[in-house]
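Subject: sequence -> structure tokens, single chain

Hey, anyone have a minute? Need the predicted structure for the following. Not urgent.
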Amino acid sequence: MGRYVVKRLGHAALVLVGVTLFSFFLTRMTGDPVRLMAPLDATEEEVELLRTQLGFNRPLHVQFLDYFRGVLVLDFGDSLRHGEPAMLLVFERMPATLSLSFTALLLAVAVAVPIGVVSATRRGGLLDALGTLLALLGQSMPVYWLGILLIIVFGVQLRWLPAGGRTDWTSYILPAVTLAAYTCTSIMRILRSSMLGVLGQDFIRTARAKGLGERTVVYRHALRNALLPVVTVVGLQLGSLLSGSVITETIFAWPGVGRFVVQAIFNRDFFVVQAAVFLFALVIVAINLATDLLYSLLDPRIRYA
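Reply:
Had a minute. Here:
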């Protein structure tokens, strides 16, 4: 296990290096931030002076070497728009994004697991058909469309819930439902397929032959063995929720990293974008490693060399 963890950490380091390369050169291709920061009536001499002060007049490879040295100590430079350390600004908004993503994930799991189990145990019945229809609707609706629809119905017309912002627990409901919709249907479909495969195996028939109750057979024996592919989906979906929160946070004016990155892109705030991309990559790599290690806890037969 120790060798496997060390090997995966080495792979993670290579991924993060690739992310730093990609984010650095991609942001440099989006335009000149100096033109946005300089006053409209600024002369060419004033623009060049500002570019020199910010260090954008240096060769690109020199800028990258300075950037990479800063990455090693989590120093991405100061925000061009706010004048504060970029990573600090991202860290300040990360709790809002994490809380929303985990709320959406818990909601998705809480809804998907019971529906997936019921659909598998009542295959071909009315509940299975309703579950399939729900999965189809959840995967067909675009996130931005669902978010706007929820705002119009529950935030504007009925006025039951806040239409935007982050205030109390009620402000989590609409954005969490929006984020959880696609994740819920993905988990439900995977769990249903996995449960159908497990319910037909010999050890399930043996458990029933011993006289165990159906609830015990389904939830204690079948569900536990059907969770391995679900764990994979949950891990991948958590990463998708973090990166996909950009649209949801923008729609609901959520003060998280996603909305902040969108603003930084429009402002050509390179250092904020690079800090946010690196932090997202770091979190996703950690989630994937934790998902792999969780396999051995759910199934003792799995051992990593």
